[in-house]
Amino acid sequence: GEISVSKPRSSVARREDGTLVVAGIHLLPPPPKPPGSITVGQLGPDPLAALLQALSGNSSYPATVKKISLEGAAIAFNDRSVKPAVETTAHADASLTDLVFGRASPPARLDAHLAADRIIENLTVTGEVSTSPLGAGIHLDVKSSGIQPGSVSSYLPPGMQFEMKDGHFTSSIDAAIAPETKGGENARLIV
User: Fold this and answer.
1) Exposure of 134 by Cβ count < 10 A (0-12 exposed, 13-18 middle, 19+ buried)?
2) What is the pLDDT of residues 57-116, one digit of tens each?
3) 3-state class (DSSP) for residue 172
4) How far apart are CA 55 and CA 27, in angstroms?
5) 175 Cβ contact list (under 8 Å, min separation 6)
6) 111-137 pLDDT, tens per residue?
7) 91-97-99 Cα angle (round to 5)
8) pLDDT tens digit sequence for 149-180
9) What backbone phi and psi angles, to 5 degrees, belong to 10?
Protein backbone atom coordinates (compact mmCIF):
# COMPACT_ATOMS: atom_id res chain seq x y z
CA GLY A 1 0.00 0.00 0.00
CA GLU A 2 0.87 3.66 0.09
CA ILE A 3 1.04 6.21 2.92
CA SER A 4 0.82 9.87 2.00
CA VAL A 5 0.90 12.93 4.26
CA SER A 6 0.25 16.31 2.67
CA LYS A 7 1.01 19.73 4.17
CA PRO A 8 1.38 18.84 7.87
CA ARG A 9 2.17 21.79 10.13
CA SER A 10 3.67 21.99 13.60
CA SER A 11 5.60 24.33 15.83
CA VAL A 12 8.47 24.06 18.27
CA ALA A 13 9.42 26.87 20.62
CA ARG A 14 11.97 27.30 23.38
CA ARG A 15 11.10 29.90 25.98
CA GLU A 16 13.60 32.17 27.75
CA ASP A 17 13.85 29.69 30.65
CA GLY A 18 14.66 26.80 28.29
CA THR A 19 11.23 25.18 28.46
CA LEU A 20 10.29 23.51 25.17
CA VAL A 21 6.82 23.90 23.75
CA VAL A 22 6.09 21.28 21.09
CA ALA A 23 2.73 21.44 19.31
CA GLY A 24 1.37 23.41 22.27
CA ILE A 25 2.63 20.97 24.93
CA HIS A 26 5.03 22.46 27.51
CA LEU A 27 7.97 20.16 28.26
CA LEU A 28 10.13 20.84 31.29
CA PRO A 29 13.83 21.46 30.66
CA PRO A 30 16.17 18.60 31.63
CA PRO A 31 17.80 18.89 35.07
CA PRO A 32 21.32 20.36 35.04
CA LYS A 33 24.09 17.83 34.55
CA PRO A 34 26.59 17.38 37.38
CA PRO A 35 30.11 18.61 36.65
CA GLY A 36 32.71 16.04 35.68
CA SER A 37 33.73 13.95 32.74
CA ILE A 38 31.37 11.78 30.77
CA THR A 39 32.28 8.17 30.11
CA VAL A 40 31.15 6.18 27.08
CA GLY A 41 28.83 4.08 29.23
CA GLN A 42 26.94 7.19 30.32
CA LEU A 43 26.04 8.05 26.72
CA GLY A 44 23.78 5.02 26.35
CA PRO A 45 23.46 2.78 23.31
CA ASP A 46 24.89 3.84 19.96
CA PRO A 47 21.98 5.59 18.17
CA LEU A 48 23.16 4.62 14.66
CA ALA A 49 23.49 0.97 15.66
CA ALA A 50 20.04 1.10 17.28
CA LEU A 51 18.51 2.59 14.11
CA LEU A 52 20.13 0.02 11.85
CA GLN A 53 19.15 -2.76 14.25
CA ALA A 54 15.53 -1.56 14.15
CA LEU A 55 15.63 -1.53 10.35
CA SER A 56 17.09 -5.02 10.15
CA GLY A 57 13.65 -6.50 9.60
CA ASN A 58 13.61 -9.07 12.38
CA SER A 59 9.85 -9.23 11.99
CA SER A 60 7.91 -12.47 11.90
CA TYR A 61 5.41 -10.74 9.59
CA PRO A 62 6.93 -9.61 6.29
CA ALA A 63 5.44 -6.35 5.06
CA THR A 64 5.84 -4.15 1.99
CA VAL A 65 4.99 -0.48 1.70
CA LYS A 66 5.05 0.66 -1.93
CA LYS A 67 5.48 4.35 -1.07
CA ILE A 68 5.61 6.64 1.94
CA SER A 69 5.46 10.30 0.98
CA LEU A 70 5.53 13.61 2.79
CA GLU A 71 4.58 16.70 0.82
CA GLY A 72 4.81 20.33 1.90
CA ALA A 73 5.62 19.75 5.57
CA ALA A 74 6.50 22.80 7.67
CA ILE A 75 7.69 23.20 11.25
CA ALA A 76 7.92 26.69 12.71
CA PHE A 77 10.81 27.07 15.18
CA ASN A 78 11.17 29.90 17.65
CA ASP A 79 13.98 30.03 20.25
CA ARG A 80 13.73 32.83 22.81
CA SER A 81 16.48 31.36 25.03
CA VAL A 82 19.24 32.91 22.86
CA LYS A 83 19.97 36.52 21.89
CA PRO A 84 19.00 37.54 19.32
CA ALA A 85 16.04 35.18 19.29
CA VAL A 86 15.90 32.60 16.50
CA GLU A 87 12.86 32.30 14.29
CA THR A 88 12.70 30.09 11.20
CA THR A 89 10.52 27.57 9.45
CA ALA A 90 11.81 24.20 8.25
CA HIS A 91 10.23 22.77 5.08
CA ALA A 92 10.29 19.16 3.87
CA ASP A 93 9.21 16.99 0.97
CA ALA A 94 10.26 13.33 1.07
CA SER A 95 9.45 9.89 -0.28
CA LEU A 96 10.52 6.34 0.48
CA THR A 97 9.58 3.75 -2.13
CA ASP A 98 9.52 -0.06 -2.07
CA LEU A 99 10.16 -0.48 1.67
CA VAL A 100 10.15 -4.15 2.70
CA PHE A 101 10.39 -5.56 6.24
CA GLY A 102 10.94 -9.15 7.35
CA ARG A 103 12.46 -10.65 4.20
CA ALA A 104 15.41 -10.14 1.88
CA SER A 105 14.67 -7.54 -0.81
CA PRO A 106 16.31 -4.80 -2.86
CA PRO A 107 16.88 -1.56 -0.94
CA ALA A 108 14.13 1.07 -0.69
CA ARG A 109 14.71 4.42 -2.44
CA LEU A 110 14.82 7.64 -0.38
CA ASP A 111 14.42 11.14 -1.83
CA ALA A 112 14.17 14.13 0.52
CA HIS A 113 14.30 17.87 -0.04
CA LEU A 114 14.63 20.12 2.99
CA ALA A 115 15.08 23.83 3.64
CA ALA A 116 15.07 26.26 6.56
CA ASP A 117 14.19 29.91 6.05
CA ARG A 118 17.24 32.20 6.30
CA ILE A 119 19.54 29.24 7.10
CA ILE A 120 19.66 26.80 4.17
CA GLU A 121 17.93 27.12 0.81
CA ASN A 122 18.21 23.48 -0.24
CA LEU A 123 19.30 20.24 1.39
CA THR A 124 18.78 17.17 -0.79
CA VAL A 125 19.22 13.64 0.55
CA THR A 126 18.93 10.75 -1.89
CA GLY A 127 19.87 7.13 -1.54
CA GLU A 128 18.90 3.65 -0.49
CA VAL A 129 17.69 2.05 2.75
CA SER A 130 18.07 -1.69 3.21
CA THR A 131 15.98 -3.50 5.82
CA SER A 132 17.04 -7.04 4.97
CA PRO A 133 17.18 -9.50 7.89
CA LEU A 134 20.61 -10.48 6.53
CA GLY A 135 21.92 -6.96 7.11
CA ALA A 136 20.43 -3.48 7.33
CA GLY A 137 22.09 -0.45 5.86
CA ILE A 138 21.87 2.95 4.24
CA HIS A 139 23.66 4.73 1.45
CA LEU A 140 22.88 8.46 1.31
CA ASP A 141 24.14 11.27 -0.89
CA VAL A 142 23.75 14.68 0.74
CA LYS A 143 23.95 17.95 -1.19
CA SER A 144 23.16 21.40 0.13
CA SER A 145 23.29 24.92 -1.21
CA GLY A 146 22.40 28.40 -0.08
CA ILE A 147 23.80 27.93 3.42
CA GLN A 148 23.78 31.29 5.19
CA PRO A 149 24.36 32.43 8.75
CA GLY A 150 20.77 33.52 9.34
CA SER A 151 19.88 33.10 12.95
CA VAL A 152 22.44 30.33 13.50
CA SER A 153 24.83 33.06 14.68
CA SER A 154 22.79 33.27 17.90
CA TYR A 155 24.26 29.91 18.95
CA LEU A 156 27.92 30.92 18.48
CA PRO A 157 30.10 31.95 21.44
CA PRO A 158 30.48 35.71 22.01
CA GLY A 159 32.92 37.28 19.55
CA MET A 160 32.63 34.48 17.00
CA GLN A 161 31.02 35.24 13.64
CA PHE A 162 29.70 33.10 10.82
CA GLU A 163 30.84 34.74 7.56
CA MET A 164 29.39 32.30 5.02
CA LYS A 165 27.11 33.90 2.39
CA ASP A 166 26.22 31.11 -0.03
CA GLY A 167 27.71 27.94 1.41
CA HIS A 168 27.60 24.51 -0.20
CA PHE A 169 28.10 21.08 1.34
CA THR A 170 28.29 17.62 -0.24
CA SER A 171 28.81 14.24 1.42
CA SER A 172 28.00 10.55 1.19
CA ILE A 173 27.11 8.32 4.11
CA ASP A 174 27.30 4.52 4.10
CA ALA A 175 26.27 2.60 7.19
CA ALA A 176 25.48 -1.08 7.66
CA ILE A 177 25.00 -3.66 10.37
CA ALA A 178 24.84 -7.41 9.91
CA PRO A 179 25.00 -10.45 12.17
CA GLU A 180 28.37 -12.15 12.53
CA THR A 181 28.50 -15.91 12.01
CA LYS A 182 30.24 -16.41 15.39
CA GLY A 183 27.77 -14.11 17.21
CA GLY A 184 27.50 -10.39 17.68
CA GLU A 185 27.08 -7.73 15.04
CA ASN A 186 29.38 -6.26 12.43
CA ALA A 187 28.83 -2.52 11.91
CA ARG A 188 30.32 -0.14 9.33
CA LEU A 189 30.10 3.64 8.98
CA ILE A 190 31.76 5.60 6.17
CA VAL A 191 31.27 9.35 5.76
Assistant:
1) exposed
2) 455 578 889 999 999 999 999 999 998 899 999 999 999 999 988 888 899 999 999 999
3) strand
4) 29
5) 48, 52, 137, 138, 187, 188, 189, 190
6) 999 999 999 999 999 999 998 878 889
7) 115
8) 877 888 888 888 878 888 999 999 999 998 88
9) -155, 175
**What is this structure's pTM?**
0.75
Using CA atoms, how far residue 43 sits from 37, 46, 51, 157, in Å, is 11, 8, 16, 25
Q: Give the burial string for 17-27 (b: 16+ CB within 10 Å, else e).
A: eeebeeeeeee
Angle at CA of residue 123, ends 127 and 55, nearest 5° = 35
Q: How many other C-beta atoms can be found within 10 angstroms of the C-beta atom of residue 56?
A: 22
Name the amino acid, one letter, at 3: I
Paired with 21 in beta bridges are: 13, 26
Cα separation, 10 vs 78, whole angstroms? 12
